[in-house]
Amino acid sequence: MNVALWIVASVLAVAFLAGGAMKLVQPKEKLAASGFGFVEDFSDNAVKGIGAVEILAGIGLILPAALDIAPVLVPLAAVGIVLLMIGAIVVHGRRKETQSIVVNVILIAVAAFVAWGRFGPHSF
Question: Which of the chain's ends, N or C, has fewer CB atoms near its CB within 10 Å?
């Protein structure tokens, strides 16, 4: 189970690092043109802030455990992702973006699995 949690956390971390980097690097207009319509509802700084939070979450899923420095941050990062995705569901729900909501629900399930495993029976 420990190996499964590492794999799942790693895949989730890569996804959030990539998504966050994209939000930080690309301008809002380019993000909107490439299918991230939600950016129209936020200021440029807010989109950059969301990207920064996603990068921090990705780092928090791996680095504390890998360095054995405050490994309790791993499940806390996973809970943070759950909360972030709940916010994303609200935004996508208002915009009637059903496909994005499905992706958010899957990410919630994966992050909740990591949080459960690392807070519970398979903590570091």
Answer: N
